[in-house]
């Protein structure tokens, strides 16, 4: 069992923006050391300015998560001198709102390259380290679009559906190595990605379909990730898909009703 005073370290991908940035901040607040990766170097530099209070416990590094060799090099370089790797959150991802007939093989490939293969690569490289150093926890960021058939999500939803079952498979295989693997399926979260993909009409539809009637915040997803990484709080939870979605994925009839 890890000593109480051990300073744990975590890897966060997509750390420059949205859910990844909020997760980085939340983990730093909870005392973790955080190695954050993102392909957007300028956004990383801006994020670093805002995280200067955590100087020494946070390292941010440009990385394209689809590049295996660069990922291996960056992860081993950045972890040097940090405490044992105990957590990974794969938030880097891309989205598209494209109808089935407009979805090209190229879009399918790009989406899967980043969302599936990129997340898998980060998780595998990190899991090798955790396997050899006392275990840890992985949180993959999926989406409610990987749970239900949302219109316009042929490429995106298929990639997130793959993440959902990858989570279960990894949980089963890695349990013996003391690595827990869970996923978060966010509903609509107010980030740069959502602002880019959701028109005003789509925004209104989400607010209508989400029982809580609003978008979530990046921090609300980050708090769930912190919980799922924390051995003390979620030590017997693995293979689960936690929807952070204001009730979207469990809702049936919702609205236009006299009982409200
Ligand atoms: P965001 O666009 O604010 O942040 C995503 C970050 O990933 C960006 O900083 C981007 O530069 C980085 N990134 C993209 N491709 C990369 C690559 N190949 N290598 C390294 N970094 C890369 O988006 P947001 O909303 O924070 O999304 C984070 C995750 O949450 C994504 O996986 C997304 O699919 C998922 N999600 C978001 C929802 C939302 O409504 N915002 C809903 C459900 C899931």
From TrEMBL:
Segments forming domain Ketoreductase: 8-192
PROSITE patterns in the record: ADH_SHORT (PS00061)
Pfam families: adh_short_C2 (PF13561)
Molecular function GO labels: oxidoreductase activity, acting on the CH-OH group of donors, NAD or NADP as acceptor
GO biological process, one term: fatty acid elongation
Family note: Belongs to the short-chain dehydrogenases/reductases (SDR) family.
PANTHER family: OXIDOREDUCTASE, SHORT-CHAIN DEHYDROGENASES/REDUCTASES FAMILY MEMBER
Name used for this protein in its record: 3-oxoacyl-ACP reductase
């Amino acid at each position: 069992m890890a000593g109480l005073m051990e300073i744990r370290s975590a890897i966060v991908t997509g750390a420059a923006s949205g859910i990844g940035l909020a997760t980085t901040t939340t983990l730093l607040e909870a005392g973790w050391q955080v190695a954050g990766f993102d392909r957007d170097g300028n956004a990383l530099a801006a994020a670093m300015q805002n995280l200067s209070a955590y100087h020494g416990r946070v390292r941010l590094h440009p990385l394209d998560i689809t590049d295996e060799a660069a990922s291996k090099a960056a992860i081993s370089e950045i972890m040097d001198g940090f405490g044992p790797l105990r957590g990974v959150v794969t938030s880097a991802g891309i989205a598209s709102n494209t109808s089935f007939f407009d979805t090209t093989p190229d879009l399918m490939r790009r989406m899967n390259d980043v969302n599936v293969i990129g997340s898998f690569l980060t998780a595998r490289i990190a899991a090798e380290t955790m396997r050899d150093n006392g275990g840890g926890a992985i949180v993959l960021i999926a989406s409610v679009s990987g749970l239900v058939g949302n219109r316009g999500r042929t490429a995106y939803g298929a990639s997130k559906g793959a993440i959902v079952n990858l989570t279960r498979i990894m949980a089963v295989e890695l349990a013996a190595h003391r690595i827990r693997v869970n996923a978060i399926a966010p509903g609509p979260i107010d980030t740069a990605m959502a602002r880019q993909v959701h028109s005003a009409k789509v925004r209104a539809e989400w607010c209508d379909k989400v029982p809580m009637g609003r978008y979530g915040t990046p921090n609300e997803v980050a708090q769930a990730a912190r919980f799922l990484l924390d051995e003390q709080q979620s030590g017997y939870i693995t293979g689960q898909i936690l929807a952070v979605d204001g009730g979207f994925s469990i809702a049936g009839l919702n609205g236009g009703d006299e009982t409200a």
